[in-house]
Amino acid sequence: MSQKVPVTRTDFxxxxxxxxxxxxxxxxxxxxxxxxxxxxxxxxxxxxxxxxTGLGHAHxxxxxxxxxxxNTLWHASNLFTNEPALRLARKLVEATFADKVFFANSGAxxxxxxxxxxxRYGANTGGENKYxxxxxxxxxxxxxxxxxxxxxxAKYSSGFGPRIEGVRHVAFNDIAALEAAVGPNTCAVVIExxxxxxxxxxxxxxxxxxxxxxxxxxxxLLIFDEVQTGMGRIGKLFAYEHYGVVPDxxxxxxxxxxxxxxxxxxTTDAIAGHFTPGTHGSTYGGNPLGCAAxxxxxxxxxxxxxxxxxxxxxxxxxxxxxxxxxxxxxxSQVRGMGLLIGAVLSSQWQGQAADFVRACxxxxxxxxxxxxxxxxxAPSLIIDFTDIDEGLDxxxxxxxxxxxxxxxxxx
Length: 411
Prior knowledge:
The chain is of the alpha/beta class. It has helices at 10-15, 48-51, 60-70, 83-95, 107-126, 145-150, 154-157, 175-181, 205-218, 239-243, 269-272, 288-301, 304-307, 310-328, 353-362, 385-410, and strands spanning 27-31, 34-37, 42-45, 100-104, 132-136, 167-170, 186-191, 194-195, 201-202, 221-225, 249-252, 263-267, 331-337, 340-345, 365-366, 368-369, 374-377. It has 2 domains: 10-58 and 309-410, Alpha-Beta Complex (Aspartate Aminotransferase, domain 1), CATH 3.90.1150.10; 73-305, Type I PLP-dependent aspartate aminotransferase-like (Major domain) (Aspartate Aminotransferase, domain 2), CATH 3.40.640. The strands form 4 sheets. Strands 4-12-11-10-7-5-6 form a 7-stranded mixed sheet, with helices on both faces. Helix 10 links the parallel strand 10 (221-225) and strand 11. Helix 3 runs antiparallel to helix 12 and helix 15 (353-362) packs across helix 16.
């Protein structure tokens, strides 16, 4: 039997590629909306593993599903299908606009599949010049070479050689810019209904509606990246339902598996037919373990008990965050939908989001940042109200402590 050797945070610096700069905290156990680190400190989790653990940590139904599947079949490859994948695909189709599903292992892979499908669709329907993809400035779509080029932030794509051709970026929520960019050579327009990584910025309904019209007029695909906004995060199973704008392609990951790696691309029969055997694939995509976890997560999240409970939790966060904005002058705006909330730092505190995150860790609270100027909250969709209140108390203590230390240092 494998022996577990003692490890600490310093082992990251010694053994792992330095592509991350992780917190000093090493979580070792989680239950619901609380986690415990190596020293036994209990922390409240308002970050959800970057909007992933929509049902919290170690949800008993998910533990049971993964355990049962682990005792039967782990892997089959794409040479075969498997029962969990078939069940999950059927339930996703029945719950959405889609007719077909492609399974991947992550949000980046789901987006990679969507962008490749867009280009294949364009080539098949409009010829070799119909390959342009229109994306938004400050968007985020993943870390593969294709997805970082579609991502509207140069910091993610710079330094990796020539850019992928045919990608145009326009200002988010700017209808005129979108109209100028979309044309006969456009194969796809990709939009996050809420830009998550760049500051929790919701799309304007008119912007999404116009994107749908432009895609229809130019025979281009409208792709919604719902990796972060999907699976109940804003109070609907997927955000497109809230806006009443139906995409041609939708991508999902993060909360789809509640932490077990899985991604999905959803589309219609007519569009799915442009992916024929051999045009795209994944050895692990649709593996039985991931699909078993996702099926149970979908069943639980897509229920009245969960979805109808999100607005009250949203209000609990908003009321306290807006009060903190008034009492301490630390936030200039609190925005977002459902349980994807961004608190924008006021001018005095711009650029210090990472420092506030660390101050929260000192108060045994885990939160996220969305760029240098926004604190992001993406907790479990079923977080107890007592955990919300206690976590917000800890946030308030962190704010008071950070402001006090800053004022003392500048006095």
